[in-house]
From TrEMBL:
Family annotation (InterPro entries): GH (IPR017853), Glyco_hydro_1 (IPR001360)
Secretion signal, residue range per the UniProt entry: 1-21
Protein name: Beta-glucosidase
Superkingdom as given in the UniProt entry: Eukaryota
Record's keyword terms, sorted: Glycosidase, Hydrolase, Signal
Lineage of origin: Eukaryota, Viridiplantae, Chlorophyta, core chlorophytes, Chlorophyceae
Pfam family, one: Glyco_hydro_1
Keyword match Mitochondrion: no
Family, as annotated: Belongs to the glycosyl hydrolase 1 family.
Length: 510
């Protein structure tokens, strides 16, 4: 009997990976050639992953301070350890390599590189050492970094000194920080992003106070923040072009957040409402870096608070990107506000009461694959067919934060797997049928990480981390296996990344 059982068990061990593999959906609906043209990868950010909050002289970011205030973070956690990427980066990079990942989006912590943060201050040698070691490890493993300078982690010293983005001083200090980063890491990093999701920074960090630093600056703060941030971006881009990118091997852009806004009905008023939302949320930054000014709709409706660019500033802003970075997760419907031609109402159900897509753990997120196609095609049409990098795309699976241990069941994420299959297929359609020039796509996120106000409760990783275990073990989820097999290993982008870096082919330098 024992023998039979042992034989059965041995057979199960042999067969189970096949059974598991068979349970995954097939490849995305993409031509092989399209897969080769897009550099696929995974993403993370410093505050959400590094930990080591006070190591090597790093000074706190606004999130370190904010998280200490009772009730701010849903599970009472903090970014002090996060995924411990600071200590585990070699292990994480080895895991990426095993999955066939060839592109990694990450960010630098401003206050780790420059603990005093201000113009003229000295870089921390420990900070420099850490990032150089990470970039080297990536290179040694055939992975290309794409680096964001600001992913919401304002140094607390700048918050204390002049309230961060509220003051124009941020323009000089950010440009100095960018200068130090370009100079120190330029031999290792060619792909840069100035700011991550300025919409979030200016609405939640410097508008309603929901996010760190947790101060309510209101509408006046929100538009001021956007203005200063845009000028900081444009100055950093000019510096990069003039001082660091004469060989045109590098690329720089901004990561713009948008959810697609679909008119609720075919009525003119609903179409106008959807466009109003896109203008105010996305055009706020996209129009500014492309045309050099705010959208007409913003000027018309926000004149009480919206600052005005000088002619010189407009010139500086115009085409201040090599690629247009997009972070896209979902879509909603927009309908008119009767009596208000400038407004919009956001709806999650269509006219027949059908929900726009399956809901995620995050209240704002629904699985709507066609959203990415419409957004990409919109950007193509409005912004003169730019090169587009999808810098984030992903979903939080319901209830994942409550899973215990690292058993096989904790790695099942059918919604996320389906989401990636659907969105990547639609992105390919945008390229193949609509002529969108999408050259990069990063799945968000590589591992589960510290999800800001939601702490460790909400998970986005394609790799699971058991945060209850002090060793923080990692395990590849089904979505990670799917991406590995059908996307990372199929895209063959190491060579392609080289080609992408050859500007003549892209023609996007200015
Ligand atoms: C966008 C942010 O850039 C990222 O930090 C966050 O984790 C994801 N959205 C998911 O909420």
């Amino acid at each position: 009997m024992g023998k039979v059982w042992a034989l059965g068990f041995a057979c199960w061990l042999l067969v189970s990976p096949l059974v598991l593999a068979q349970s995954l959906p097939g490849p995305p609906e993409c031509k092989a050639d399209t897969m080769k043209k897009i550099a696929f990868g995974v993403g993370s950010s410093a505050a959400q992953s590094e930990g080591a909050a006070a190591v090597g002289g790093r000074s706190p970011s606004v999130w370190d301070v904010f998280a200490k205030q009772p009730g701010k973070i849903q599970d009472g956690s903090s970014p002090a350890v996060a995924t411990d990427f600071f200590n585990k980066y070699k292990q994480d990079i080895a895991l990426m390599k095993s999955m066939g990942v060839k592109n990694f989006r990450m960010s630098i912590s401003w206050s780790r590189l420059l603990p005093q943060a201000v113009k003229g201050s000295s870089p921390s040698s420990d900070g420099v050492k850490f990032y150089r070691a990470v970039f080297k490890e990536l290179k040694d493993n055939g992975i290309e970094p794409a680096v964001t300078l600001y992913h919401w982690d304002m140094p607390q010293v700048l918050q204390d000194k002049y309230q961060g983005f509220i003051d124009r001083q941020i323009i000089e200090d950010f440009t100095y920080y960018a200068d130090v980063a370009f100079k120190t890491f330029g031999d290792q990093v060619k792909k840069w992003t100035t700011f991550n999701e300025p919409w979030v920074t200016c609405n939640l960090q410097y508008g309603n106070g929901d996010f760190a630093p947790g101060v309510q600056y209101g509408d006046s703060g929100k538009w001021k923040c956007g203005h200063n941030l845009l000028l900081a971006h444009a100055n950093a881009v000019r510096l990069f072009r003039q001082k660091y990118n004469s060989d045109k091997k590098g690329r720089i852009g901004m990561a713009l957040w948008s959810e697609w806004s679909e008119p609720w009905t075919d009525k003119f008023e609903d179409k106008r409402a959807a466009q109003n939302k896109i203008d105010i949320d996305f055009g706020w930054f996209a129009d500014a870096i492309h045309f050099g000014d705010y959208p007409a709709q913003a000027k018309k409706t926000q004149s009480a608070f919206l600052p005005v660019f000088t002619e010189e500033e407009k010139k500086l802003l115009r085409r201040s990107y090599d690629y247009m970075g997009l972070t896209i997760y979902t879509a909603k419907f927009a309908s008119e506000v009767p009596g208000n031609p400038n407004g919009w109402w956001v709806r999650t159900t269509d006219v027949n009461g059908k929900v726009v897509g399956q809901q995620a753990e995050s209240y704002w997120l629904y699985n709507v694959p066609w959203s990415i196609n419409r957004m990409l095609t919109y950007m193509k049409n409005r912004y003169d067919n730019p090169y587009i990098w999808v810098l984030e795309n992903g979903i939080s699976e319901k209830g994942e934060g409550n899973r215990v241990g690292m058993g096989p069941d904790t790695l099942r994420d059918p919604l996320r797997t389906d989401y990636f299959r659907g969105y990547i297929s639609e992105a390919c359609k945008a390229v193949e049928s609509n002529g969108v020039r999408l050259t990069h796509y990063f799945a968000w996120s590589f591992t589960d990480n510290w999800e800001w106000r939601e702490g460790f409760k909400t998970r986005f990783g394609v790799v699971r981390i058991d945060f209850a275990n002090p060793q923080l073990p990692r395990g590849i989820k089904d979505s990670g296996r799917w991406l590995s097999e059908h996307v990372f290993k199929k895209s063959g982008q190491t060579k392609q990344v080289g080609e992408v870096l050859n500007f003549d082919e892209l023609g996007a330098a200015c």
